[in-house]
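Hi all, long-time lurker, first post. I run a small reading group and we've been trying to get comfortable going from sequence to structure in the token notation. Rather than ask abstract questions, I figured I'd post a concrete chain and ask someone more experienced to write out its structure so we can walk through it together at our next meeting. Sequence below, copied exactly:
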Amino acid sequence: MKTKTIFFLVTLMLAIFIVVWFGMGKLTGKRPTKKRIPHANLTKMANVNEVNDLNFRVCAGTDCDRAGVLQKGSELILTGKKDSVITTNGSYFQWVEVKTIGNYCLVINSDEKLGCRIWQTEPQVQGWVNSVFLNVNGN
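-- Answer (accepted) --
Happy to help. Here is the structure in token form:
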């Protein structure tokens, strides 16, 4: 008799749990869900300032080779990598690694006097820029 009562109570509790878990949406009109954070909110975005096109480099610092030119106002993704560079005159600058989304021009398609001959958006490339020349979006 005692075993049947325990079995009945366990079965009843399991049935209630199943009804509550799976039937919650039918009773309240909503199902419990986890809060999802869109990936875009986890990515820091920036824009090149609107004043001038900006050189991006293969490493942090003006001593590094130019990888290309970023068009003024073009959009970028900040990769999260940073490097502090001290110039020969003792000035300190924060450099950040970026990935292109907007227009850029590779070194082979640009001339320092004539400017860029071919702007492109694909494929995305990565390079380093001085953070002074970026407008970081607040996301």
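A couple of things your group might point at:
Confidence is low (pLDDT under 50) at residues 30-41.
The helical segments are 2-28.
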